[in-house]
Amino acid sequence: MYASKGPVVEEWADRRFFRPAGWRIATILVHTRISPDDVTLASLVLGVIAGHLFWYTNAWINAAGVALFIWSDVLDSADGQLARLRGTSTRLGRILDGLADSARFLSLYAHLGARLYVSGWGWGGVALAAAALLSHSYQAAAADFIRQAYLYFAVGKGSELDLSSAPPPASGSFWERVAGWLYGDYVRRQAWLFPNTTALARSLAGRKVPPGIARAWANHQRRVVAGCAWIAQNIRFLLLALTVVPGSPAAYCWIVIGPLNAVLVFLVLAHEREPKLCIAAY
How confident is the model over 3-26, as a mean pLDDT? Predict the structure, then answer.
């Protein structure tokens, strides 16, 4: 069975569908020559095509876009599980995985913006989609950070919390350097959103998290982690099905900019209280 990160961090849909489906694909591919990066690329291609399907005003084509996004997400789960099965998990793999996620939703918002433009919104529609894309990027970064921080402080294992502040390497191919720079920007964005948590984690680097901090984090941050479901990836598929498929792409963008940003602010403030309490107590 797949290695679960725990019910606190994983959403219901992840535990019931995405992770098990990804695990099945990973176990099928483990003895083949298909690499985790190949699976990431397939996820990227499916996601970009899914985003393109939202350019059209046909509800069935839009519904197909939602379905492709879901299967793209299954592959996004499979690539990491395949890497862990083979013992080949790397930081570069996480970077590529993150970039694939970004490219999939860049395709979505680019096509939503184009659709709004030609449907009478003009450049205002493009600006609306761009604002939704920017909001989405910060919401996704925050949800990922809060979950990884919970695994780091409360669980003590399974975390991929990246606190590196080093500049991207000057060596490697052009695309590797570009990927490194983009991922570095993602990490810096997380550090900007969560300065207190980042400072606490860096102060504990190389040491075991004190038991008192681990207990406090587990007790106080469970609801904050659960709240990430409102700004993470899975809810986007439901929102697309409820807004864009019936023919209201602007409604989707406004929800991302308005209510989901309100949730983002609440979660950041609630999360950043914890490091202050831990520092004061320990």
Answer: 86
